[in-house]
Amino acid sequence: MSRKKILIVLLVVMAITALVSYRIVMERQAGSPEVEEDPNAIEEPENGPEPDVREELQVEGREISLQYLGHSSFLLEVDGFSILMDPYSPQVGYGTLEVEADLVTVSHEHLDHNYVAAAPGARVIRGLTADGLGWDDISLSIGKINIFNVPTYHDEASGKMRGRNSVFIFDIGELRLVHLGDLGHVLGESEVERIAPVHVLMVPVGGHYTIDAGEAEKVVEQLSPAVAVPMHYRTEATRNWPISGLEPFLESRENVRKKNSKPVYITMEELPETTEVWVMEPAELD
After folding, report:
1. What does the alpha-carbon distance between residue 90 and residue 81 come to, in Å, rounded to a whole number?
2. pLDDT value at residue 132
Protein backbone atom coordinates (compact mmCIF):
# COMPACT_ATOMS: atom_id res chain seq x y z
CA MET A 1 0.00 0.00 0.00
CA SER A 2 1.28 3.36 -0.98
CA ARG A 3 1.93 6.09 1.50
CA LYS A 4 -0.94 8.12 0.06
CA LYS A 5 -3.47 5.37 0.71
CA ILE A 6 -2.14 4.81 4.25
CA LEU A 7 -2.55 8.50 4.99
CA ILE A 8 -6.13 8.47 3.72
CA VAL A 9 -7.02 5.48 5.96
CA LEU A 10 -5.53 7.16 9.02
CA LEU A 11 -7.51 10.34 8.32
CA VAL A 12 -10.75 8.35 8.02
CA VAL A 13 -10.11 6.49 11.32
CA MET A 14 -9.38 9.75 13.11
CA ALA A 15 -12.57 11.32 11.76
CA ILE A 16 -14.71 8.37 12.88
CA THR A 17 -13.12 8.42 16.37
CA ALA A 18 -13.79 12.16 16.76
CA LEU A 19 -17.43 11.72 15.67
CA VAL A 20 -18.05 8.91 18.17
CA SER A 21 -16.50 10.91 21.02
CA TYR A 22 -18.65 13.92 20.16
CA ARG A 23 -21.85 11.83 20.24
CA ILE A 24 -20.95 10.37 23.66
CA VAL A 25 -20.39 13.84 25.12
CA MET A 26 -23.68 15.15 23.73
CA GLU A 27 -25.65 12.18 25.12
CA ARG A 28 -24.20 12.75 28.58
CA GLN A 29 -25.12 16.41 28.49
CA ALA A 30 -28.67 15.54 27.44
CA GLY A 31 -29.16 13.46 30.62
CA SER A 32 -30.04 14.75 34.17
CA PRO A 33 -27.55 17.39 35.23
CA GLU A 34 -25.68 16.89 38.46
CA VAL A 35 -26.89 19.20 41.26
CA GLU A 36 -24.52 20.47 43.86
CA GLU A 37 -25.65 19.26 47.30
CA ASP A 38 -26.83 22.00 49.65
CA PRO A 39 -25.31 21.33 53.11
CA ASN A 40 -28.21 23.25 54.77
CA ALA A 41 -30.99 21.34 53.04
CA ILE A 42 -33.35 19.17 55.15
CA GLU A 43 -33.79 15.68 53.84
CA GLU A 44 -37.42 14.54 53.72
CA PRO A 45 -38.41 10.89 53.94
CA GLU A 46 -39.84 9.10 50.92
CA ASN A 47 -43.36 9.15 52.42
CA GLY A 48 -43.41 12.91 52.80
CA PRO A 49 -42.38 15.40 55.50
CA GLU A 50 -42.29 14.48 59.19
CA PRO A 51 -45.44 15.44 61.19
CA ASP A 52 -45.33 18.68 63.12
CA VAL A 53 -44.23 17.70 66.63
CA ARG A 54 -45.65 20.92 68.05
CA GLU A 55 -49.17 19.78 67.17
CA GLU A 56 -48.69 16.58 69.17
CA LEU A 57 -47.35 18.56 72.12
CA GLN A 58 -50.40 20.80 72.07
CA VAL A 59 -52.66 17.76 72.29
CA GLU A 60 -50.70 16.26 75.18
CA GLY A 61 -50.51 19.60 76.97
CA ARG A 62 -54.21 20.36 76.91
CA GLU A 63 -55.46 22.48 79.79
CA ILE A 64 -57.94 20.85 82.18
CA SER A 65 -59.62 22.77 85.00
CA LEU A 66 -62.30 21.91 87.53
CA GLN A 67 -64.36 24.42 89.52
CA TYR A 68 -66.83 23.67 92.29
CA LEU A 69 -70.12 25.55 92.02
CA GLY A 70 -71.72 24.26 95.22
CA HIS A 71 -73.81 21.24 96.25
CA SER A 72 -73.01 18.62 93.54
CA SER A 73 -72.33 20.94 90.64
CA PHE A 74 -68.96 21.36 88.92
CA LEU A 75 -67.68 23.05 85.81
CA LEU A 76 -65.08 21.07 83.86
CA GLU A 77 -63.14 22.84 81.11
CA VAL A 78 -60.86 21.19 78.57
CA ASP A 79 -59.11 23.58 76.19
CA GLY A 80 -62.06 25.95 76.21
CA PHE A 81 -64.77 23.28 75.96
CA SER A 82 -66.88 23.41 79.14
CA ILE A 83 -69.08 20.78 80.78
CA LEU A 84 -71.53 21.66 83.56
CA MET A 85 -72.29 18.75 85.88
CA ASP A 86 -75.52 18.36 87.89
CA PRO A 87 -76.65 22.03 88.01
CA TYR A 88 -78.92 22.90 90.94
CA SER A 89 -82.15 24.87 91.04
CA PRO A 90 -82.30 28.29 92.77
CA GLN A 91 -84.54 26.57 95.34
CA VAL A 92 -81.53 24.73 96.75
CA GLY A 93 -80.19 27.87 98.43
CA TYR A 94 -76.94 28.63 96.63
CA GLY A 95 -78.50 31.31 94.45
CA THR A 96 -79.29 31.27 90.77
CA LEU A 97 -76.77 29.25 88.82
CA GLU A 98 -76.02 30.66 85.38
CA VAL A 99 -72.84 29.78 83.50
CA GLU A 100 -71.61 29.47 79.95
CA ALA A 101 -71.20 25.82 79.04
CA ASP A 102 -71.17 23.68 75.91
CA LEU A 103 -72.55 20.55 77.55
CA VAL A 104 -74.63 19.71 80.63
CA THR A 105 -74.71 16.29 82.29
CA VAL A 106 -77.56 15.27 84.60
CA SER A 107 -77.11 12.24 86.84
CA HIS A 108 -80.82 12.02 87.74
CA GLU A 109 -83.99 14.07 87.61
CA HIS A 110 -84.10 15.84 90.98
CA LEU A 111 -84.25 19.63 91.16
CA ASP A 112 -80.87 19.90 92.88
CA HIS A 113 -79.21 18.14 89.92
CA ASN A 114 -81.20 18.85 86.74
CA TYR A 115 -81.50 22.63 86.43
CA VAL A 116 -80.40 22.74 82.80
CA ALA A 117 -81.59 26.35 82.46
CA ALA A 118 -78.33 27.25 84.21
CA ALA A 119 -76.55 26.91 80.84
CA PRO A 120 -78.80 28.27 78.09
CA GLY A 121 -78.10 26.76 74.67
CA ALA A 122 -75.91 23.94 75.97
CA ARG A 123 -76.37 20.36 74.83
CA VAL A 124 -77.94 18.25 77.60
CA ILE A 125 -76.98 14.65 78.35
CA ARG A 126 -79.28 12.90 80.83
CA GLY A 127 -78.30 9.75 82.64
CA LEU A 128 -81.89 8.49 82.97
CA THR A 129 -84.67 7.90 80.47
CA ALA A 130 -87.44 10.49 80.17
CA ASP A 131 -89.73 8.55 82.51
CA GLY A 132 -86.96 8.12 85.09
CA LEU A 133 -87.55 4.36 85.16
CA GLY A 134 -84.42 3.38 83.29
CA TRP A 135 -80.91 4.47 82.39
CA ASP A 136 -79.83 6.03 79.14
CA ASP A 137 -76.79 4.30 77.67
CA ILE A 138 -74.34 7.17 77.28
CA SER A 139 -71.29 6.78 75.04
CA LEU A 140 -70.13 10.08 73.64
CA SER A 141 -66.88 11.41 72.18
CA ILE A 142 -66.27 15.12 71.76
CA GLY A 143 -62.79 15.89 70.54
CA LYS A 144 -60.40 14.45 73.11
CA ILE A 145 -63.16 13.90 75.70
CA ASN A 146 -64.92 10.54 76.03
CA ILE A 147 -68.01 10.38 78.22
CA PHE A 148 -69.98 7.35 79.39
CA ASN A 149 -72.17 6.40 82.34
CA VAL A 150 -72.54 3.53 84.77
CA PRO A 151 -76.02 2.71 86.14
CA THR A 152 -76.39 2.89 89.94
CA TYR A 153 -79.16 3.61 92.44
CA HIS A 154 -80.15 6.55 94.60
CA ASP A 155 -80.64 4.28 97.62
CA GLU A 156 -79.74 0.88 99.05
CA ALA A 157 -83.04 -0.68 97.96
CA SER A 158 -82.36 -0.89 94.22
CA GLY A 159 -84.14 2.40 93.60
CA LYS A 160 -87.36 1.56 95.44
CA MET A 161 -86.99 4.59 97.72
CA ARG A 162 -85.43 7.32 95.57
CA GLY A 163 -85.05 5.88 92.10
CA ARG A 164 -82.06 5.52 89.83
CA ASN A 165 -78.78 7.39 89.45
CA SER A 166 -76.10 7.58 86.77
CA VAL A 167 -72.40 7.82 87.47
CA PHE A 168 -70.73 9.92 84.77
CA ILE A 169 -67.18 9.16 83.65
CA PHE A 170 -65.07 11.68 81.75
CA ASP A 171 -61.94 10.35 80.03
CA ILE A 172 -59.48 12.98 78.80
CA GLY A 173 -56.49 11.14 77.42
CA GLU A 174 -55.18 9.05 80.32
CA LEU A 175 -56.95 11.21 82.91
CA ARG A 176 -60.30 10.01 84.26
CA LEU A 177 -62.72 12.15 86.27
CA VAL A 178 -65.80 10.55 87.83
CA HIS A 179 -68.95 12.26 89.13
CA LEU A 180 -70.95 9.88 91.32
CA GLY A 181 -74.17 11.92 91.28
CA ASP A 182 -76.47 10.98 94.16
CA LEU A 183 -75.01 7.54 94.71
CA GLY A 184 -77.00 5.84 97.47
CA HIS A 185 -75.02 2.65 98.11
CA VAL A 186 -71.56 1.16 98.29
CA LEU A 187 -70.46 -0.04 94.88
CA GLY A 188 -70.66 -3.61 93.72
CA GLU A 189 -67.70 -5.43 92.20
CA SER A 190 -68.95 -5.06 88.62
CA GLU A 191 -69.54 -1.34 89.13
CA VAL A 192 -66.03 -0.85 90.48
CA GLU A 193 -64.59 -2.67 87.46
CA ARG A 194 -66.48 -0.39 85.08
CA ILE A 195 -65.62 2.85 86.89
CA ALA A 196 -61.98 2.26 87.87
CA PRO A 197 -59.27 3.44 87.53
CA VAL A 198 -60.13 6.91 88.80
CA HIS A 199 -57.90 9.97 89.12
CA VAL A 200 -60.40 12.59 90.33
CA LEU A 201 -63.55 11.43 92.15
CA MET A 202 -66.48 13.70 93.01
CA VAL A 203 -68.23 11.88 95.85
CA PRO A 204 -71.36 12.68 97.96
CA VAL A 205 -70.73 12.47 101.70
CA GLY A 206 -73.75 14.03 103.47
CA GLY A 207 -75.95 10.97 103.92
CA HIS A 208 -79.76 10.74 104.15
CA TYR A 209 -80.32 11.15 100.40
CA THR A 210 -76.93 9.70 99.44
CA ILE A 211 -74.15 7.64 100.95
CA ASP A 212 -72.95 9.02 104.27
CA ALA A 213 -69.40 9.73 105.43
CA GLY A 214 -68.65 6.11 106.36
CA GLU A 215 -70.01 4.74 103.10
CA ALA A 216 -68.22 7.45 101.15
CA GLU A 217 -64.99 6.33 102.82
CA LYS A 218 -65.65 2.77 101.60
CA VAL A 219 -66.34 3.98 98.06
CA VAL A 220 -63.10 5.97 98.07
CA GLU A 221 -61.27 2.83 99.20
CA GLN A 222 -62.97 0.83 96.43
CA LEU A 223 -61.96 3.25 93.67
CA SER A 224 -58.67 4.50 95.15
CA PRO A 225 -58.60 7.85 93.34
CA ALA A 226 -55.65 10.22 93.39
CA VAL A 227 -58.05 12.98 94.48
CA ALA A 228 -61.45 12.78 96.20
CA VAL A 229 -63.62 15.90 96.13
CA PRO A 230 -66.53 15.80 98.61
CA MET A 231 -69.93 17.15 97.56
CA HIS A 232 -73.60 17.09 98.59
CA TYR A 233 -73.10 17.95 102.27
CA ARG A 234 -74.72 20.52 104.54
CA THR A 235 -73.54 24.10 104.28
CA GLU A 236 -75.05 27.43 105.24
CA ALA A 237 -76.98 27.32 101.98
CA THR A 238 -78.48 23.90 102.81
CA ARG A 239 -78.60 24.30 106.60
CA ASN A 240 -82.23 23.10 106.71
CA TRP A 241 -81.54 19.90 104.81
CA PRO A 242 -81.44 16.61 106.77
CA ILE A 243 -77.87 15.90 105.70
CA SER A 244 -74.63 16.09 107.65
CA GLY A 245 -71.81 18.53 107.18
CA LEU A 246 -68.33 17.83 105.89
CA GLU A 247 -66.67 17.13 109.24
CA PRO A 248 -67.59 13.42 109.64
CA PHE A 249 -65.93 12.64 106.31
CA LEU A 250 -62.79 14.59 107.13
CA GLU A 251 -62.21 13.61 110.75
CA SER A 252 -60.43 10.33 109.99
CA ARG A 253 -58.43 11.61 107.03
CA GLU A 254 -54.90 13.00 107.03
CA ASN A 255 -54.29 14.15 103.47
CA VAL A 256 -56.75 17.03 103.26
CA ARG A 257 -56.04 20.04 101.05
CA LYS A 258 -58.14 23.19 101.27
CA LYS A 259 -58.81 24.89 97.93
CA ASN A 260 -60.33 28.30 97.29
CA SER A 261 -63.24 29.09 94.98
CA LYS A 262 -61.09 29.40 91.86
CA PRO A 263 -60.71 26.59 89.31
CA VAL A 264 -58.04 24.00 90.02
CA TYR A 265 -55.84 22.90 87.12
CA ILE A 266 -55.23 19.20 86.76
CA THR A 267 -52.35 17.32 85.14
CA MET A 268 -51.37 13.69 85.44
CA GLU A 269 -47.86 14.67 86.50
CA GLU A 270 -49.06 16.70 89.48
CA LEU A 271 -51.60 14.24 90.88
CA PRO A 272 -50.65 12.80 94.30
CA GLU A 273 -49.46 9.22 94.57
CA THR A 274 -51.73 8.51 97.55
CA THR A 275 -55.32 9.69 97.86
CA GLU A 276 -55.84 13.30 98.88
CA VAL A 277 -59.12 14.99 99.74
CA TRP A 278 -59.55 18.37 98.12
CA VAL A 279 -62.10 20.56 99.88
CA MET A 280 -63.17 23.08 97.28
CA GLU A 281 -64.96 26.30 98.13
CA PRO A 282 -67.98 27.05 95.92
CA ALA A 283 -67.43 29.66 93.23
CA GLU A 284 -68.83 33.09 93.97
CA LEU A 285 -71.84 33.58 91.72
CA ASP A 286 -72.62 36.99 90.28
Report:
1. 25
2. 87
* Phi and psi torsions of 124, nearest 5°: -115, 130
- Residue 255 sits at the vertex; the CA angle it makes with 223 and 261, to the nearest 5 degrees, is 90
Q: Cα–Cα distances in Å, from 40 out to 19, 43, 45, 51?
A: 42, 9, 16, 20
Rounded CA-CA distance 101/78 in Å is 11
Mean pLDDT by 10 residues, the chain (286 residues): 57 55 45 37 35 30 88 97 98 95 98 98 97 94 96 97 98 97 98 98 98 98 98 96 97 92 95 97 85
Domain annotation for the chain: domains and CATH numbers = 62-280 (3.60.15.10)
Those residues with Cβ within 8 angstroms of residue 116's Cβ, 6 or more apart along the chain or in another chain: 87, 104, 106, 122, 124
List the one residue out of 108, 115, 105 whose CA is nearest residue 82.
105
**Residues 160, 177: contact at Cβ < 8 Å?**
no
Cis ω on the peptide bond leading into residue 197 (within 30° of 0)? yes
Neighbours of 133 (CB within 10 A): 10
Half-sphere exposure of 202 (CA within 13 A, CB side): 29
The H or E element spanning position 217 is helix 213-223
Q: What is the DSSP letter of 135?
A: B
Among 50, 196, 197, 204, residue whose Cα is nearest residue 112: 204
Note the pTM of the prediction, 2 decimals: 0.79
pLDDT for 161: 96
- Using CA atoms, how far apart are residues 78 and 81, in angstroms rounded to an integer? 5
